[in-house]
Amino acid sequence: MSKTNALFARRQRRTRYALRQAANGRPRLSVFRSGKHIYAQVIDDKKGATLAAASSLETDLKGKLKTGADKSAATEVGKLIAQRAIAAGVKEVVFDRGGYMFHGRVAALATAAREGGLSF
Questions:
Q1: Which domains occur in the chain, in start order?
Q2: Which of 12, 27, 96, 109 stands the most exposed, by the fewest C-beta atoms within 10 Å?
Q3: What is the pTM of this model?
Q4: H-type helices in the chain, by residue range?
């Protein structure tokens, strides 16, 4: 494993450990961003199940977006994940940014999810 990947995995483990301590049974809103797209899912760690998921690869979003790798795409994915999570009966989550900084696309997704009705 390269040094960059090892450092990323370390930050990811540290973040998830802190989330487990603060979760109090709430599901986790996990974010993954690649060079071309952004993905989000609400995960219930106790059951080991995904409750809701959304990404910039969705067919209804692909038509609206110029690219899946910018803040506008992250905002749309954030709104969509909030709708789906609320439909699944989840209103409170803990935000798992993984090893990413809370900045740019990750922050845009989080803001849109909050505006969509999720609280974290």
A1: 3-115 (3.30.420.100)
A2: 12
A3: 0.92
A4: 3-22, 59-62, 71-87, 105-115
